[in-house]
Amino acid sequence: MKIKLEEKVLSENDKIANQNRDLFKEKNLYVINIISSPGAGKTSILEKFLYKLSPDITAYVLIGDVQTENDARRIQDAGYDARQIITGGACHLNAQMIGKNVESIDLERLDMLIIENVGNLVCPAAYDLGEDDKIVVLSVTEGEDKPIKYPAIFNKATLMLLHKVDLLPHLKFDKKKAIDYALAVNAQLKVIETSCVTGEGFDELFQWVRSNINMKKARKHKV
Ligand SMILES: Nc1nc2c(ncn2[C@@H]2O[C@H](COP(=O)(O)OP(=O)(O)OP(=O)(O)O)[C@@H](O)[C@H]2O)c(=O)[nH]1
Ligand SMILES: [Mg+2]
């Protein structure tokens, strides 16, 4: 009975996610969904990344958290467009929350929509939001075995940011093992090592995003 209900919820979510995807395609908008465990560094990455994007690329950030507007405020204080979605208990964002929130955003003027999901490696993997790419952030403070403990999100992601690498000299974290585990789960996964402290990896991340935006625009013009 529980499984039946869960299947129904997920198939309803998929239907709305496809509507979101059609809308994003029509508006020529590249959309990413950033997922990690709590505190891995999603908002910090965005603060640094948005600085790199602007003014060439116009982005809007939607941020999911169980409580508080702290993260949206951090992005707004840095001078960028952001809106908080408070789930009030849910451990993930769903497609309906995204669809409802984008109704009042002028998507025409944007190149990119960035979604920071609720800090959790399990539930967000099951909920398609209509995004083009899922990005998983694995911080080196979390242990190298996370990709094999929580394979679903590493399997569905296109890009893994191995984050906080500035801390590596102070930890026993085995970087090669972490990357090998992630690639064992998803051989296609691209990996970029990042640090908000040293700035490592942000040029490569920017190039990766820019080429995806360009590819999406080119695909639209072909249709
Ligand atoms: N050493 C180091 N610390 C970092 C780095 N990036 C983020 N942090 C720290 O990690 C902590 C959590 O960062 P957040 O950006 O709030 O993480 P988050 O994933 O958005 O957290 P939630 O939204 O609560 O899940 C903060 O204390 C940051 O200063 C990094 O590259 N290196
Ligand atoms: Mg955050």
Task: Characterise this structure.
There is one protein chain. This protein has 223 residues and is an alpha/beta fold. It has one domain: P-loop containing nucleotide triphosphate hydrolases (Rossmann fold, 3-Layer(aba) Sandwich), CATH 3.40.50.300. Helix content is 44%, strand content 19%. The chain contains 9 helices and 7 strands. It has helices at 2-26, 42-53, 70-77, 95-102, 123-126, 146-149, 151-156, 175-185, 202-222, and strands at residues 30-36, 59-65, 81-86, 112-116, 133-139, 159-163, 190-194. Strands 3-2-4-1-5-6-7 form a 7-stranded parallel β-sheet, with helices on both faces.
Shape: globular
Rg on CA atoms, Å: 17 Å
Strand proportion: 15-25%
Biggest beta sheet summary:
7 strands, parallel
The fourth-level CATH homologous superfamily is P-loop containing nucleotide triphosphate hydrolases
Annotated CATH architecture: 3-Layer(aba) Sandwich
Name the helicity range.
40-55%
Could you say how many structural domains there are in total? 1
Number of helices: 9
* Whole-number mean pLDDT: 95
Low-confidence stretches: none
The set of bound ligands, ions and cofactors reads: guanosine-5'-triphosphate, magnesium ion
- Total E-strand runs: 7
Indicate the structural class. Answer: alpha/beta
Please write the string of helix (H) and strand (E) elements: HEHEHEHEHEHHEHEH
State the distance separating the first and last CA atoms. Answer: 43 Å
